[in-house]
Amino acid sequence: MDILTLNEYLNQVVYGFPMKLVFLLVGAYLVIFQIRWFSAPFRMLRVSFSETFGALRERAYGFGGQITPFQATMVALSATVGTGHLLGMLAAVLVGGPGAVFWMWLGYFFGTGSKFAEATLAVHFRRRFADGSVSGGPMYYLARGLPRFRFLACLFAFFAALAAFGIGNLAQAGAVGGALAPLGAPPALVGLFLALLVGVVLGGGIVRVARFAQVVVPLKLLLFLVAVGPLLVLYGAKIPEALLLVFQAAFSPEAALGGAAGYSLYAAINAGLGRGIFANEAGLGSAPIAHAQAQVDHPVRQGFWGVTEMFVSFLVTSLTALTFIASGLWRDGGSAAEAAQALFQAHPLGAVVLALTVAVFALGTMVSWGFYGEEAAAFLFGEGMRWPYRLTFTVLAFVGPLGGLEAFLAISDTLNGLMAIPNLLGLVLLGPVVARLTYGFFRGEPWVPPR
Amino acid sequence: MVKRGGMLEGNLAEFPFPALVGALMSAGRTGRLSIRSPHLEGEVFLRGGQVVHARVHAGDRALEGEEALDLLAGLKRAPFAFEPETLPPHTTLLGGLAVPARLAEAQAVWQSLSLPTDWGYVLRLPPGGGEVELGPEAIRVLAQVEGRRIAEVLLAPGVLRLARILHTLLQVGALEAVPLVQVPPVSLLVLPIYGPGSGVAYVDEALYAEWARAIRHGFGLRLTPPGTRMEVRPRPNIPGRLGLLEEDLRRLRLRRGDKVEVVPEV
Lengths: 451, 266
Description:
heterodimer; A: 451 residues; mainly alpha; 73% helix; 1% strand; B: alpha+beta; Cathepsin B, Chain A; seven-stranded antiparallel β-sheet; six-stranded mixed β-barrel; 32% strand
């Protein structure tokens, strides 16, 4: 068995249906038994909004550290809200039908538990250095929270450091190049621009990454609204119908869709859960690396920011999906790229807005993933690895738009999926810590960091 | 006690006033003993081992002679310096054995009283109120002392009598002595603390420690707006924030991120 065959096999495992069920079950375990959303759902909802959207007007005020909770969330959102929210979402509807959206929502709901736990644990177990900087993420909560399973931390860091080169860099740079190519942008020039931008931003450490994310995330959302807004107006009358179809097709796609298209319940669940899990990265372990940087008085406060990250991601994917379903274009089949082209033909700005949106989405993802990879590499090999990692990342950002390196890209995609295994295991084993922190937070107890 | 350039220096906390004067008298010294506490200044002149003049003043109020000695005998902490060969401007004491006898008597009185060591403390009526039975003289004193420093009250004729009355008023709880806090107000952002209870405000540990060092007494916190006084406790990792419990947020009509000015109050 050669390495590519092995990779293909592993890829099918880590992105397969059983693995999606594992994601869902871990999220459900955290939501129901550890965080206990349902014990006081309205209070939880109120606190969640108060801690995040209610804190927006004080977003510039930190708690004395390097970056504010808002900025940390922007870094995480910058990575999370990527091309998967557009093209990936269209692909999920094309494969699973409108019913996939319902299952995606289910994935999102239970994903809030994973994301909350990840962000909380990331802050709780992070390491603070003498210069006031901090490092955290799954590799730290696995290493410090489960010292007997330190190898899981190393495994996670290894997967993350390498996956960042492929899925967080080559794939994103390729997406930027691909999106801008129809506008006449030469790939080499796009690569050079990306390399310079990524190099300059990553070179400034987390503070510059956070400042960049603070600009790019609102820009992403603005571009998304410009891209989807006119389509929503155009198909607005059909949105209720689309919504109804989502619920009808969720349980009996054959009956709801007439059976002509060949959609099955399994396809809807599989495609929907896939989006509900991988689009928001809950359980994957990437976002907590950013959340760990937030300076907060209690880890649970950052946990709520993790939920907000899910909420924003949920809005973007849901609006994309509902617009697509309302347009009726999903019935035509084809690839996600073709569907996107067809969908945006009705847009006044045409394909230009799609190209720009995809480019900016991919760019933001790239920078945040660069930081994730760097943190993972520094965990494995020490602080001296930061600059070599940044340089390698910059070089790959130049190569991305030129194409090639497909084999490496395929392997990094698998490594990206493999990140979830140690992380999910850690979330299950450290669930009681999340429960204790959440209980303490709602008893007004101050946070006592572990030694 | 140290000797610098012919000057003797020290603090009454280490060398009590009656013992100091006794030592200078025994050594037959001539000169001026200056005592400078933050709230009053005193000087005692000796000539050939005899105490011939004593004066205590604060601003335009002053005491001289035996009354001044009585007051100085009660000072528990203040830096002093003895300047040799300085002659008195005039004589208010006759010297001889009357001075040590007066000092011993005053010292005995002061030892029987428990007034705060820091005479910069301000006297005020306790906020809780309550009923106590007082004599006419105590009532007269009570009516005059509110808002004044202990040093100011004692700097009047009949020092020991006043000290006894103050002691009684403080003991029965008709008065309380609190430090005069002059801490500038701090602007903080409201941060919700989720938990049971009310009436407690939380500030960052560093800010609390800074206030505690400056005040050296139990203190509360006044919030503006809404002008409420609350109990204050330190809490880690909340620089620039004022942690308020949910119930207090509702009661005070405050919400997350509101800016409030806080000032510690004793």
